[in-house]
Specification:
The protein is mainly alpha-helical. It has one domain. α1 crosses α2. The longest helix is centred in the C-terminal third of the chain and has 24 residues. The model has no long low-confidence stretch (mean pLDDT about 85).
Length: about 70
């Protein structure tokens, strides 16, 4: 299990690059370094902030009447 890559796939095909960019942007903002040698807490924090930012984006789109 250690060193294995996640088998999760994005719901929107072709969004992998944008999600990776978001992941590293947030990690940089938090001063975190991602990787298999980091704790689950460190890596999970970045994932939590990604989710929070994506929910905020979706809420803003809905508020503006845009289809998401």
């Amino acid at each position: 299990m250690a060193g294995e890559r996640s088998s999760n796939t994005p719901a929107v095909q072709g969004s992998e690059r944008a999600l990776d960019q978001l992941k590293y942007e947030i990690a940089n903002e938090l001063g975190a370094t991602l990787g298999g040698d980091r704790s689950s807490r460190e890596n999970g924090t970045v994932g939590g902030y990604m989710t929070k930012r994506m929910v905020q984006f979706a809420e803003q789109q809905l508020k503006n009447g845009q289809k998401i």
